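Hi support team,

I've been running sequence recovery on a batch of backbones for a student project. Most finish fine, but this one hangs at about 90% for roughly twenty minutes before it completes. I'm not sure whether the input is malformed or the queue is just slow. I've pasted the structure tokens below so you can try to reproduce it. Let me know if you need the job ID as well.

Thanks,
M.K.
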């Protein structure tokens, strides 16, 4: 499957994914670390309260437990506050914080005269309670005690949830900032490639001959290689055209001599028609192959683009002068200046020149050239005349090399053959239909230059 996503999209998506993975991993690790730290802090706080509680417990005159002064944390005085303490002595005596109301914690550390301590979760007045349970020997009361200080688990969980939410929001903002920063870096880093793309578009349109090599060192060799390729193609095309022209010139001189000899034989009463006809046939083939070679060279060069409006204006202006004496009106529809067809200028002139010239030869008073855009990134050029028209059975045969529908009209019979050959090289098509005035309508479809925007 072809990968059509741009480098910018790929890099942005990859950066966003890795940033998200990193931030999620950071959230998990930091949450776990903070949870351990928070639990340790809660235990330390309970240890502090338990030590304070052990120092404040005394026995009154009748042997009952009481506190010399209340604990410093006022939450132990508020009912169902989530902070509780409880003290027990051997024989069943106990003392509980006002916050516990009528509830009690189920303590079970043995009072065997040894100091012990543990952290457990017990059921409290408002739900599970994290309890620090401790046995005290030789405290201010003078008797062994079992005491416990606890805090509601929901208080710890709410504290942790608040931290995790705050952490998640903070990391999300950091992630957005990192993604935005990455996007700016990607945009800035790919600017040279965008510049190369615009310059390539200019080369394709014919507005520039080479790419600029004033680029970062990573892409400068690529631009240099493309320039070298363009230069090599231009040199090959130049040599091919030169060789084709030299060959044509070399053949035309002997052909002229042979044709002269054929005409001289005919003038002397001998049959020289065959020689004259074959020379004329060879000449037409040379003209046809030269036009074909030129079109192939232009198409192979990769720089095949022509702005349609100025090209047609120049063409009509030239043909109008040729047929000025016949009073033919040439009409050209208004065209936007930015319409660019994927066809070399000389090949477009060859195609439209043949079609407009043919129309002018047969027209009575007018020739009309219209252009319409099609949905599949092509345009249609239509050359219509008000002449006698062409029979339907002759329309396809008119595109065969050397075919002349009417021998009384000057021509070589190669014009339409060259038109079809050139148009097909550029992926287009050409056909003949009936014009709005009953004459011939020559239709050509050519692709729009893809880098015209």
């Amino acid at each position: 499957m072809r990968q059509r996503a741009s480098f910018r999209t790929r890099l942005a998506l990859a950066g966003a994914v890795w940033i998200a993975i990193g931030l999620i991993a950071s959230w998990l690790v930091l949450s776990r670390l903070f949870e351990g730290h928070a639990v340790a802090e809660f235990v330390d706080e309970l240890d502090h309260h338990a030590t304070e509680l052990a120092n404040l417990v005394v026995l009154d005159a009748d042997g009952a437990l009481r506190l010399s002064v209340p604990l410093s944390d006022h939450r132990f005085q508020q009912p169902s506050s989530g902070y509780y303490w409880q003290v027990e002595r051997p024989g069943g005596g106990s003392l509980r914080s006002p916050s516990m109301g009528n509830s009690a914690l189920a303590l079970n550390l043995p009072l065997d005269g040894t100091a012990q301590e543990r952290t457990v979760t017990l059921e409290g007045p408002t739900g599970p309670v994290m309890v620090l349970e401790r046995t005290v020997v030789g405290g201010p009361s003078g008797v062994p005690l079992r005491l416990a200080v606890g805090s509601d688990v929901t208080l710890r969980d709410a504290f942790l949830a608040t931290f995790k939410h705050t952490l998640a929001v903070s990391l999300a903002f950091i992630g957005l900032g990192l993604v935005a920063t990455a996007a700016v870096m990607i945009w800035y880093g790919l600017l040279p490639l965008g510049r190369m793309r615009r310059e390539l578009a200019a080369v394709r349109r014919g507005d520039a001959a080479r790419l600029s090599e004033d680029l970062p060192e990573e892409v400068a060799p690529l631009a240099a290689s493309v320039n070298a390729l363009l230069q090599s193609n231009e040199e090959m095309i130049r040599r091919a055209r030169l060789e084709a022209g030299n060959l044509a010139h070399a053949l035309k001189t002997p052909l002229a001599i042979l044709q002269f000899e054929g005409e001289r034989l005919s003038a002397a009463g001998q049959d020289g028609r065959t020689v004259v006809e074959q020379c004329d046939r060879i000449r037409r083939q040379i003209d046809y192959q030269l036009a074909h070679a030129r079109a192939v060279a232009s198409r192979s060069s990769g720089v095949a683009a022509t702005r349609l409006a100025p090209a047609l204006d120049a063409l009509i202006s030239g043909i109008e002068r040729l047929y000025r004496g016949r009073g033919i009106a040439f009409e050209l529809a208004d065209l936007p200046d930015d319409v660019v067809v994927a066809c070399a200028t000389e090949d477009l002139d060859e195609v439209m020149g043949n079609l407009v010239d043919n129309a002018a030869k047969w027209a009575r008073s007018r020739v009309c050239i219209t252009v319409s855009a099609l949905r599949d990134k092509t345009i249609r050029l239509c050359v219509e005349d008000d002449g006698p028209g062409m029979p339907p059975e002759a329309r396809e045969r008119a595109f065969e090399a050397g075919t002349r529908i009417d021998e009384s009209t000057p021509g070589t019979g190669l014009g339409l053959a060259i038109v079809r050959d050139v148009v097909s090289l550029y992926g287009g098509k050409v056909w003949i239909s009936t014009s709005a005035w009953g004459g011939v309508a020559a239709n050509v479809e050519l692709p729009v230059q893809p880098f015209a925007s």
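--
Follow-up from support: It reproduced on our side and the slowdown came from queue contention, not your input. Residues 34 and 44 are 15 Å apart (CA to CA). No action needed from you.
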